[in-house]
Records
---
Amino acid sequence: MVAIDTTAAAAHPAAAGRLRLSPQAQGMAALLVTVAIWAAFALSARALSASSLLPADAALLRFGVPLVVLAPALWRRRHRIAAVRPGAAIKIVCGAGVPFFLAAMHGGALTSAAFVGSIVPGMVPLFVSALMIARGRTVPRGTQAAGLVLIAAGVAALVWRYVVPVDTDVLAGSGILLVASGLWALYTVGLKEVDLDPVGSIGLLCLPSFAVIGLLVLTGVLPTGLAHAAGSDIATFLVVQGLGVGLCAGLLYAFAIRRLGAERSSVVGSLSPVAVVLLAIPVLGESPTPAVLVGVPLITTGVVLANRRPRHKVPADA
């Protein structure tokens, strides 16, 4: 929806033809760009296994690049970042930090880009609803409940053909991606609980995440091949993970959360699976399997329904 600022137009005739996006439209625009970036993230999660980079290397780029680019702005916000409540900070750092990143990368290596793009964002509404119910919110009903059921059915459709005969790699990867989706739901809810602008939210996420991944690399817990990696791989992941996911998507998603709320923002999952499946064909040479052709539409439809707000009935005598 587009809102026209008539007051400003009257005061400045030259601006009479200009349109100002409403807060809701701004949030949806941010989500659409985020969809494209997340699709690239899903593709890179699958492509990592065939690159000269290791998961720790991709994580260093993911969390390190935003810190370098935003260093002056983060320094000005250091007191507000330090004042965030521990509970909310843990949700953000665990939900989108090192645990989420390594789970998404490892799960993608065991499955496909379609699985990453479908399960991780697609299951977020279900996990967000579960978190809301745990906090005392009402149980979803009607179309919202039907949407959550379709999401679960879509995920089941994706993995059913790997149950008989059992494909342990794909099933294990799918389980890891479910964990990643649950973590991202935690991040989505945590963003709503902090009084930080998008830049501050990125700092709260990236500072401890970069410190943790750096410590794991320095102590040898996680191996690194960054020094010997191909320059093209470093450039690709720097753009996609560092600038794209780490900086642009972080700013836009945090902005959308504040404009639309945590539950409505998870509607991004309704478009992300489709974008990933379509892009994986030319980029990675992945052909959609029958399970993907059934599961992705179910997840997409489910996310749309799960994010529909129930209409309140108007009394007849109103």
---
Amino acid sequence: MTNDYRFEFRPYQRRFVQTLTTNHGTWDIREGIILRLTDESGKVGWGEIAPISWFGSETLEQALDFCRQLPREITDEIIFSIPDELPACQFGFESGWEMGSGGDKGDNFITLNSCRDAINRVSTSNSLFFSALLPAGEAALNQWETLWEKGYHTFKWKIGVYAIADELEILESLIQTLPAFTKLRLDANAGLSYEEANLWLRTCDNLKANAELSLEIEFIEQPLPVEQFQGMLELSLSYQTAIALDESVATLRQLTACHQQGWRGIFVIKPGIVGSPSRLRNFCHQHKIDTVFSSVFETAIGRLAALRLAAELSQNNRAVGFGIDHFFEQEETWLQSLWNNL
């Protein structure tokens, strides 16, 4: 039986507290779309479309065009036939469907507080622990302590942003100052040359070999550009330090292609842009891949849906990359205002 839903949506903008700097450039404002699906019994499901076009998803404009052309009443069939070219839309609509009448997992809420409570329940009941994102460059040295005090013991640091010699010096300082048993992830955002990737991996292997070092470099994330897949495959077989693919596996289509080409290392999955949650579930159950689930700087609505997937599909007890609250002001009435003011 086909179900009908009243469909409404609102575009949003959230300013970062501090500019986010990566190899892709700088980012000051997170834009996206919140959607609401109401079934015939009045049950509500919330979803979020949070594209990152330079990462492989559709643009915000394409997502808005898709939402604008839909009728006010939509069906299951429409939700599950969104094309692969709109992966962030696939995620937003399908997770909204799951949260509402399509699945039995949802809560009927419109407050960010209740969203956060649900996130805490999912995290606690599934023993999820979080990796916190450090800023690029020397700023990382000033910020890890505050985050450590908040309970983060895994950190991700952006590399490939400044001169490699400077970044290697900062790494040395980080390693001297971070507490024992910290895990550190180095994220190059596809910004290294093959020679630089070798230098980073050699450096990390040497650190691993140091018996006195009680800190673990967990992996280097996406050292080379997407089109240099073979290079990353070679590097993954040449060093002890693990490599995780990120930009290379941004969407389900890419993830499947990399697996078919032999990648058996770590897959960083950003649920907000990967595509259909149901198809992602099928793929992960079938192939038992080593995953790290990660944020796309979504609101609490998208994060709740993403963390439910992470709780269900994470295999190797790796920290999830959702420690990004410190990048935004926490506005309790933000969602109600967005909905009621338009």
